Each structure stands twice: as structure tokens, then as C-alpha cells.
Amino acid sequence: MIKSIALLGEYTPTFPPHVSTNAAINHAQQLLDVDITANWVSTEDIDSRLFEHYSGIWVAPGSPYKSMELTLWAIRYARENKIPCFGTCGGFQHMVIEYARNVLGVKGAQHAEYDPSASSLFISQLACSLAGREMQLSFEPGSRVAAIYGGLSAKEHYYCNFGVNPDCIDELKQGPLKVSGSDAEGEIRVIEHPDHPFFIGTLFVPQMRSIPERPHPLVTAFLRAVLL
Predict the structure, then answer these.
(1) Per UniProt, which keywords does this protein have (predicted)?
(2) 87 DSSP 8-state letter
(3) What are the structural domains, with CATH classification, of the chain?
(4) Which residues contact 127 (CB under 8 A, 6 or more apart)?
């Protein structure tokens, strides 16, 4: 049976990260010599039957989403039921919000893109936009992401204006979720859940650096997890 993944987001054919998402999946499929169906699903169309059809979710760049709450529901379901979940850029940000609300118990955890005046902003506007920039990353030794890259550093492309609120970093580190990647300034750029087949979020957009000759290792690892 052919496995399927849901690309959660508001697909825009002129938005480079969305075009790159489709391309990166194709690159990884060719490397693995497998056939995986990838369908874009608008966040407002997420419902309880989502995981009857899909074996994994990729929460895509391009927020604000049409439905933040349905997106958080899908992330929670994937986290609790050990279904592969990959979040890039906006997807990373929503994985942080879901975790803060449902694991750390901060029910009012919010994203500044939706409610900039909220009292518990776990995702805030970056002091300096990262959109269009490439930056060096460092990975934690022994982390899943370091194993996937086969090293402790990489250079990646960003397309975002929001990130983890520095005031919430200590609180975010209180639970099982691990901060496994950071930039040169120590800002959080990668999160992963160690007790999960694949639950990884990146503030950067790895699909932007995937090419047919070198499929991105994170995308390839995600597809491998979906196939299991």
C-alpha cells in the first residue's frame, strides 16, 4: 500500500518554500526509490479523519494558518500517537505552541502573529527578521538531528519573522522536548521529541536547500519514518 503524508498549510504556488516542499519530497523519494503520496491540506479542512488517510504530517511554512486550533489538534494527535510529524518555519512555531499548551500546561500559550498582546507569548516577533538569510547551526551531540545530518553543524536557509520568545526558553526546557539545534547566538532553531519515531521542528526551511543530487537529509529521514 502506498503511504501518504499531509502537507498542512495554505498552499500558494508562488511561495518558494511551498514549491521547494514539493520538490524536496520528490528528491527524497527518488533517493529512497519509494512512492509516497503528498497532498496539501488546508488547515481549515483538518478533521478527525485526517489520520485515517495519512501516515505522517508535515506542518508547512506560510502562517498565519486559516485554523490555528485545528493545526494544533493535528500536531497533538501526531505527538501522542507516535505518528511522524515534521514542522518547518511556521510548523516549528506551532509545534512549540502545542507543546506549551498540552504538555507544559500553559493553556494560554500564544503566537504573536495571531495575538501580539497575549500574556503568554511563546512565539514572538524576531528582533531581526531571518527571512532570506542563511545561517550556521550547531546541533547537540547525541541528538536525533545530529545523527540525521551526520555531524554537529550545518548551514540552512530561513524564511521567517517569528521565533521562540527568549523569555520562555527556560520554561520550554522543563519537559521532555529537547532543544537540539541553535544558531551562533544560541537561539533555538531545532526541537525534537526523543521518545517519538519522528517529531522534529526546525525554524529554518530545509527544503529550500534540497536538490536532486543531494536530497535534504531531514526530508529523507521524515519519509523513512513514514514508511515504517
Answers:
(1) ATP-binding, Glutamine amidotransferase, Ligase, Nucleotide-binding, Pyrimidine biosynthesis, Transferase
(2) E
(3) 3-227 (3.40.50.880)
(4) none
β-pairing, 85-88 vs 110-111, is unpaired
Judged on CB neighbours under 10 Å (0-12, 13-18, 19+), 135 is middle
CB 94 within 8 A of CB 203: no
Record the cell numbers describing residue 47, joined without a space.
Answer: 478533521
Angle between helices 217-227 and 16-32 (to 10 degrees): 60
Closest Cα partner for 169 from 196, 189, 145? 189
| 150 Rama sector, left if φ>0, alpha if ψ -120 to 50, beta otherwise | left
In this structure, are residues 166 and 185 in contact, taking their beta carbons and an 8 Å threshold? Answer: no
Tell me, yes or no, if the pTM score tops 0.90: yes
Residue 199 has what DSSP assignment?
E
Task: Determine the Cα–Cα distance for residues 43 and 74; give it in Å rounded to an integer.
Answer: 9
Strand 188-192, strand 199-202: pairing: antiparallel
Q: Report the alpha-carbon distance of residue 198 to residue 141 in Å, rounded.
A: 18
For 190-210, the pLDDT digits (tens) are 999 999 999 999 999 999 999
Confidence of residue 129 (pLDDT cuts 50, 70, 90): low
